[in-house]
Design a protein that fits this description.
This protein is mainly α. The chain is built from 13 helices and no strands.
Amino acid sequence: MTRQRALVYIHVAAVLFGLTGVFGEVIQASAALITLGRAVFAVLSLMAFSRLQRKRLFSALTPAQLFTLIISGGLLAVHWVTFFISVKTGGIAIATLGFASFPAFITLFEGLLFREKVRAAEWAIIGLVTAGLILVTPSFDLANAGTVGLAWGLLSGLAFALLAVSNRHSAVGLDAMQIACGQNIVVVLAMLPFAAGQLPQLGAIDLFWIALLGIFCTGLSHYLFVSSLAKLNARSAGVVIALEPVYAIAFAWLLFAQEPGLRMLAGAALIILAIVWSGLRKPHPETMLV
């Protein structure tokens, strides 16, 4: 692994993360079914990538580690379901920018739950995210589909922030690939009661898109991200991953003619600035995965 290859890996991972909303748009299935399928194919692909790395993916877990994986897997399921609902309600750009609020939620949770002092710079990050979301909001009217979609996106960001805090403070003794695989197994088990009955109605083309989502936007992207950290520090990787909303907005514009207005672009710029700033201050790679 060279630094140049690591940079290629991390940029490809960012593009794949940005494609997540595109698949959520094209797949004609419920958010629960998309989440179930994504997790199934993610587990299969992560198992394959771990064999390429000759890493042991499964090992005995302590009760504390098992509890952490169950809780974090449940949060991951909530994050994905709400994100896909947001995509289908408000569009790709709105959903991605709503989710991108997670650094502000992380700062608040760490201040409230772990009594970590929130410094002036962190309040500034929260302020940037808040200002960006105000600009992104299509209308302060819950009858507006875009506004409802943004609300679901914010809920997705909230769930992801709780997931990130859980990983950061509890996932001791497990590497990123083990955490990802364990969480996806929990997602499969959690979503089966809600989505299994819908499987007979799933079309072949939608199954194909779900497979691509699980293999490339989850398994492969995670593998590339973790591999790149062999040569890149988490700060550098986090700045690149912060480009995800840029890619998502570009894909929505090119593929679905979801053209962003000046207000959305201005709001997106503020949110992306907050993500970059947050990543430069706290290098925690497990919080960058989508």
